[in-house]
Amino acid sequence: MTKNIAILTSGGDAPGMNAAIRAIVLAGHRYQYKIFGFYHGYNGLINNELKPLAISDVEGVIHRGGTLLKSARCKEMRSKTGVSQAVNVLLKNKIDALIVIGGDGSFNGLLAIHEQWQGQVIGIPGTIDNDIDGTDFTIGFSTAVDTALSAIDKIRDTADAFERVFLVELMGRQSGQITFNVGVSCAAEKVLSFENFNIQQEQETLEQISTQIQTAKQAKHSSFLIVIAENLWPNGSEALAKKLTSMTGIDCTLCTLGYIQRGGSPVAKDRILATKMGVSAIQAISQGKSNIMVGEQNNAICLIPLTQAVEHNKTVSPLLIDAQENILALSKQTDAY
Amino acid sequence: MTKNIAILTSGGDAPGMNAAIRAIVLAGHRYQYKIFGFYHGYNGLINNELKPLAISDVEGVIHRGGTLLKSARCKEMRSKTGVSQAVNVLLKNKIDALIVIGGDGSFNGLLAIHEQWQGQVIGIPGTIDNDIDGTDFTIGFSTAVDTALSAIDKIRDTADAFERVFLVELMGRQSGQITFNVGVSCAAEKVLSFENFNIQQEQETLEQISTQIQTAKQAKHSSFLIVIAENLWPNGSEALAKKLTSMTGIDCTLCTLGYIQRGGSPVAKDRILATKMGVSAIQAISQGKSNIMVGEQNNAICLIPLTQAVEHNKTVSPLLIDAQENILALSKQTDAY
Amino acid sequence: MTKNIAILTSGGDAPGMNAAIRAIVLAGHRYQYKIFGFYHGYNGLINNELKPLAISDVEGVIHRGGTLLKSARCKEMRSKTGVSQAVNVLLKNKIDALIVIGGDGSFNGLLAIHEQWQGQVIGIPGTIDNDIDGTDFTIGFSTAVDTALSAIDKIRDTADAFERVFLVELMGRQSGQITFNVGVSCAAEKVLSFENFNIQQEQETLEQISTQIQTAKQAKHSSFLIVIAENLWPNGSEALAKKLTSMTGIDCTLCTLGYIQRGGSPVAKDRILATKMGVSAIQAISQGKSNIMVGEQNNAICLIPLTQAVEHNKTVSPLLIDAQENILALSKQTDAY
Amino acid sequence: MTKNIAILTSGGDAPGMNAAIRAIVLAGHRYQYKIFGFYHGYNGLINNELKPLAISDVEGVIHRGGTLLKSARCKEMRSKTGVSQAVNVLLKNKIDALIVIGGDGSFNGLLAIHEQWQGQVIGIPGTIDNDIDGTDFTIGFSTAVDTALSAIDKIRDTADAFERVFLVELMGRQSGQITFNVGVSCAAEKVLSFENFNIQQEQETLEQISTQIQTAKQAKHSSFLIVIAENLWPNGSEALAKKLTSMTGIDCTLCTLGYIQRGGSPVAKDRILATKMGVSAIQAISQGKSNIMVGEQNNAICLIPLTQAVEHNKTVSPLLIDAQENILALSKQTDAY
């Protein structure tokens, strides 16, 4: 039996979204389904910006950043009216299943639709932040980490040449996944994230970092990189940089990597993850599944209830935090020789 | 109690080996161990090319390809005399534990040493081929996949511009891990590897691929990429290219990516994997472990018997093979519109 | 007065061709010209594969490798019949000016058309080989050099780790521009190209290189890279690698970089060069110019007779050759300390 | 006759400085000169941080960003006392020639030394800003442009996906070289730099850009990138972003690329330029030259008086400005179809 399946991408774009769209289209055609795309996220759903997606539409897109379906934030989806309009458009177009590639905000929209609509709803986790439960990795995360890492490798050159202190602020919303993974990879002298910072110990943390900076300076360590999560420090990372500068008497400069972290050609891991998820989404639809997210756990694809995906229980690997805090960060302990 | 710990890198070099050495040195110093390096692999062990490794020796190396300890193939280790010499050097230097970063050949050497020596022996899987059992990933694999992918993305440009057929040969020895992961990531029209090719059906395979190429050509598909594993095709990949050219009447050109796959700055995943494994190796030594390999399964570090690591039972994910063969490769099925 | 202007890309593709097409389209529309593209090079001209090029067709293409107009080799253009057919198509479509982006073969085709056709003919040098006279750089050359360089930087990692000898063969047809520029950039121990190799001294050269390799080995120099131009060595680069291996007793391995050198996102220099040339081509057409190539000399755009462009008098900078041969290559002279 | 030659790197670091140091060391040894390095720029000269530079010190550095001699800003050199101290250190170490790789500030220091010291002083232009007279390019400029371009290519992905307006601020101090070259290369919808902005027409410019943004939005142009030079806009680029947001009612977001522009592995052009300049500096010393800068004009090395180098008369190519302003930027003119 054929089905009409619609896709949309929503929330912050993430490298690999196009690979997921491609996989959905290829797998969908294999199942004789008709595949459509709503452009501009939920706005396009509400406004009925619908186009069929042929196989030729997804040729030559697997390696491109961004999303060919465009994305957008959509306030209307937070209101009942907006959701009703979305449902009407789905009904009008006789859509049987809706696949949304996005983050937790996007999934909340999907849950709202599910309450009013009989069709199948499937989520695919596409966000660089890797803050979705029920999947070890989200599409875009690996690319964002490598992009940030390449940028910091360059900053390290200057930091080393001038023996300077830099704070580098990374994206991730309320999650330290990017920050910790990049921090360990770039051999940061200090990683500051939600997982190891307690706002009640702000002063203590400041004093600890100041001491570390001064110790490193005295040891003529060539440079000092602090990798910090956005949204972490009270009053912002710039305030922290200024505070550290005044406390240590050493110039501490902030670099905010910003939007380069969202773009770029996806790395292999994101293309593969996106491809597997896209294929699995179509398979799940063929099996009549609904109200689920396609995830990957322990290298195997899994389907989890959509409600679980947005619970925000995901944590950074304690081994990684422990290694960074207790072994890697303190690189200036005395040599045993 | 302090220990004398020696490291060596052996076999083909892999991006991330330096990150592993760094982690071992940092963690070792944390445990008050003395860390040494044998240079030039097992040759250096036999010839006693030993140097202490201070923390300053591993600053600024996490992002570098190759191995600061140098590597080499070593025939002597296949003889009893060679192993005895190695053991003598370990005894003479009062080494308590030996960590070898390498592939299965390197681990066989380590097993031979273990038979004659009381010290602790620890393996860390470092090879781009990802053909070691007991670990989901080996150090260097992720970087090699991304390096090959970037190269093929460029070849795709030319293939598209000229609507040409290219065969791209990838490394991996007897394993299809690199080939399948790269093949899916680059949207190859065909992946040819140990997992989906039966030498008894050579003729059948040739005819199938020829038909696919001609079908694609008639459909004016812009290009056709065949990704093939080294050591797969009888008489070599060049012979296959010539055969396909003569069978189809269409020029099929071979590109052998070669040694660029072994080098380059490691991606974040390899730096993190290497860091975790290096730290865990020291922890395992502190717990008196021996004759084990540090692996990673389901995103968690594990210790497995060294003998299991070299069994060659590892397989490419069936989901990936199935998706490539049955959904992604046949991109020229008729559109449903 | 409006004009109908057609573009085609021909010969080997080169990164930056899309940037040139974009500039022609934007500048052409600015002059109120109608811009068309013939697809698939001269084949498309002969077969009348013509499409209008709107501004929206060239959005989002400046950073893409390959050519959106496709390219192809075209045997028919070497015959009078082919040229006549091409001219007929130009007349039939009332084309006033034809811009060809390509190398010397492509320009010879353009010269043949010019003999039979009253319209304006303009060449833009697009080839990675940089073997066109009358312009310091051709579109694609800078990107190809950087692509080859990145690949060799990775090969250097492995060469250093194993203290190995590698020969790396580079593209360039009969020109050493790529070879010398890459050779100097990657700190090659030896550069072998048309400019510094005399086939009559084959034996002498072999002995000289063998001695250099052995000297380097004795001095424990970590690696030895020979960068060699394709089409240079009698019987091919593989034969040279084998000969050096047997003469030195040291394994000399060949890496052929191949088609990766043609693709990839163009570097800034190629995008800017292509943009300037595209804009200037339209300006030249508006001024009634014909039978010329747009070149760049001493950082300024110039127009030169098309016949001069294909004379093959271009040489590699003697300073570069001299520096490489007499100062940089002999890196194993004794230190003055 | 042998000479003692000292090198230092000063001012902002630039990719390719290591390649220049390598060339100086190799060429110097060829001439039987003794080569030394002062570490940490002029500070190291004043404090006598001198080390000999052997050939082995510059192996494996050509591809590394930063500077192995370290750099630093140095206030003391602005005072007579500082300069006298520097001269004393040069005399004490019997230095015959001093080569400084840096920007205009560094050259002013060199000029001050020249007034009090009989030795030969040679400048090599190393700064990403390309704001030195007498040379078409400075070491580091080409790499910085490509680094910024790669970053903006990624930002474009997000901008396209969300159809957003981004301002991207680039380095360059008081020069628009980076800004214009990057702006043209990334197909910026608007380039704002010293060369095309008049502070007296601030309001006019604001209104013009606002109109362009709104026109593009209405035309459903996918994204709008404004590339802006640092130090250009009164009260800073953030203020401009806010103003445009309030004037257009469309969110205009600022991305400051920052320090990633200074680091990274140098591109081929910078490695070659640095190599040629380093070799030429030694040749100039052998010829008894002093008080000069080694530059490159029209692809040929030249020597110019050091005083000319710091005159700040360099301008961005008018062709580039004109093309950007009048042809490329206005990509929303009506199609001729």
UniProtKB/TrEMBL annotation, chains A, B, C, D:
Its EC number is 2.7.1.11. InterPro entries: ATP_PFK, ATP_PFK_prok-type, Phosphofructokinase_dom, PKF_sf. Gene3D superfamilies: 3.40.50.450, Phosphofructokinase domain. SUPFAM superfamilies: Phosphofructokinase. It catalyses: beta-D-fructose 6-phosphate + ATP = beta-D-fructose 1,6-bisphosphate + ADP + H(+). GO terms for molecular function: 6-phosphofructokinase activity; oxidoreductase activity. Pathway: Carbohydrate degradation; glycolysis; D-glyceraldehyde 3-phosphate and glycerone phosphate from D-glucose: step 3/4. It is an enzyme of class 2 (transferase). Its cofactor is Mg(2+). Residues 4-285 form the Phosphofructokinase domain. It is found in: Cytoplasm. Keywords: ATP-binding, Cytoplasm, Glycolysis, Kinase, Magnesium, Metal-binding, Nucleotide-binding, Oxidoreductase, Transferase. NCBIfam families: PRK03202.1. Belongs to the phosphofructokinase type A (PFKA) family. This is 6-phosphofructokinase. It comes from Thalassotalea castellviae.
